[in-house]
Design a protein that fits this description.
DNA Methylphosphotriester Repair Domain; globular; binds zinc ion; 199 residues
């Protein structure tokens, strides 16, 4: 069975992901994320928490896809620290270039229309490519990027919330707080108090 949400982009299949998840296989870190339906939390394959029952697990090729499906990032294995080695890498030049530009902040300063124009494609076409190969829209990917940048700064620095919001690419401190409550179910200050060591 192919990974959910990515039927056309699949290199890894469900059984392969399941084997890697149960064995906590480091070679798969960054190549997929597993969402646990009972807890609504998603993890890296190397998560130190006892693996959930296989029947409750769904697989996603990117953190953004897991978040778009309603899963929260795990506070123990910290998906924001996973290496950038998605299963679809090499599959689509346009998607790769778009992902690189989004990682550099292209959608923090401008919209999807401008990003698509830089890549020489239409915005709707870019959206379709993303749904097919990433499992999330460009805006969802940009949001996950901001969350991950902010999370790394929360855990790894003593910067103020205002500085983190600005450095991570959030339009305002209010927006930063609202997105964290939505995604983690906790405020950034609560998250900072809960710091865990990297896996
Ligand atoms: Zn985890």
């Amino acid at each position: 069975m192919p990974i959910k949400a990515l039927p056309n982009a699949i290199i890894l299949d469900h059984a392969e992901c399941e084997r890697a998840r149960v064995r906590r296989d480091r070679r798969y870190d960054g190549r997929f994320f597993s969402g646990v339906r009972t807890t609504r939390i998603y993890c890296r394959p190397v998560c130190p928490v006892r693996p959930a029952l296989g029947r409750n697990v769904e697989f996603y090729a990117t953190a953004a896809a897991a978040e778009a499906a309603g899963f929260r990032p795990c506070l123990r294995c910290r998906p924001e620290t996973a290496p950038f080695s998605p299963a679809w890498q090499g599959s689509r030049t346009t998607v790769q270039r778009a992902m690189r530009l989004i990682r550099q902040g292209a959608l923090d300063r401008a919209g999807v229309g401008e990003l698509a124009a830089r890549l020489g494609v239409g915005a709707r076409h870019l959206d379709r490519l993303f749904q097919r190969h990433v499992g999330a829209s460009p805006l969802q990917v940009a949001r996950t990027q901001r969350i991950q940048r902010a999370k790394l700064l929360l855990d790894g620095t003593a910067l103020s919330m205002t500085d983190i919001a600005a450095r991570a690419g959030f339009a305002s401190l209010r927006r930063f707080n609202a997105v964290f409550v939505e995604v983690y179910g906790r405020s950034p200050s609560d998250i900072r108090r809960l710091r865990y060591k990297a896996v």
